[in-house]
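In line with agreed milestones, work has continued on tokenised descriptions of protein folds. One protein thus recorded appears below exactly as we store it:

>
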Amino acid sequence: MDSTRQQHSPPASSASSPPQTQGLVSWPEGEEAEKMLSRYRRVQMHIFPFVIIPSDTTSASLRLERPFTWKALMLQCCSNDGHRQHVLGKELLQEFSEALLTRPRKSLDLLQGLILFVAWHHAGLTSFQATNLLGLTRSLCLSLGIHEGQVRELETDLGPLCLEKLRAFAGTYYLITSFYTTSKRTDAFMNTTYLDSLCRVLEDKALCPTDKLVAYMVKVQQLAQNISLTLSSSTTSQLFLLPMVMVVKSLQSQIESFKTNIPVDLRDNVVLASHLYTAETLLYEVGLQDVSVELGGLQGTDRLEVLWSLFTSLKAFLSLRFDPSGKKCHGFPCISSVDFMYNFLTCLKLITLQAPGWDLARIRRELALPDLADQQIQELERLIHLRKRGNNEDMQTSRPSQDPLQRLATTLKNISAVLRAMPEPGPMTPLVQNETESNDEDADLLDLDFVSTLVPDAWSGFWAPEDQNGDWNAETPLLGLSSE
């Protein structure tokens, strides 16, 4: 047996056993499993390229040699059947728990399976589960020797197994940064010292066509992490020693440099572009803060310029996610919905901002958030219908009364109704007036807590509550990702 297979083969466990049936639900077999593997290679592997399945690998051989990876990708490909996906997701989560905690082991297969599970099934997890799995994924990297201390060793051994490890480490960094950057959890970030060498190796070696994309997906998250760290509350006191306009321009130059260096063949990649727009939003949202000049804040035309840049980035992000042609609707991994929620909430803040010189009527009109919410509701309702499994009484009895997607669609309808009920903003406040003045009618309606009222816990709310997991799994509704 070769070294690669030795690394992937875990001790005997339920993950490596033949597909089992849980009631009326079973893991894919035979032709169905081969079709799902083909779909993974055709769609998901090019969107989330951190786990590569060779073209000559069959479903049967993958299940035997890499059982956790096989189950994780099969789970994602069951997304059109909510009941089946939820039941199998619970089973796989239990197997991960045993492999990581009660009967601990380490293997590259386990790490790759975890990466796929969190990236594509995170909406089926509670926030607590997702956080713990990310921490365990990070620890597993260390246990496997995939960390910054192994740079020289990995650079001298660039075989297929080494590159698989590099992709897995890159995927771990990508998930952790995606999860924590927009929620400003800077204490949870990974050390980036190793990443420059990792990206260089992947770009130079590039055994797979998507390895260059892996490198740039890591680089854009490094950029976002740097912005988040620079503007975090922990560095606020040091930042205010410099005018904020200088800090913004410095970070802005880093973004422009990144854009210039993106290879031509990756400039139309929607995942990369969405992360870049999110990085811009992380930077330009400082314009939402009303901080005095004495404390280094933005005021006057400087603030308006940053706010306009924020508006431009948000509009570009929304245009990407709500592509009217429908050509880009398959372009995002489920974990990217975290970015979507962050940008959507920032839009809500922007359309309720009262600031001198800020044309609120134009901003509301051009962002058109109620229309986008209605578009997403229609997509949700289509997915809800698709995920139903007929009227078999045996299957219906174990379901809750409502698909979680329906609850989320209802929430979006409420948001849309509130947005449409907002009165037209009053005349734009002249730039020379005090920034604290605002239209009283708008202020009364929004009550200064508009965003938090609509989404009281936007981050943990993306995952099912502990007591509402039921028998359905809900892919997140704010994906820009349709089923095939």
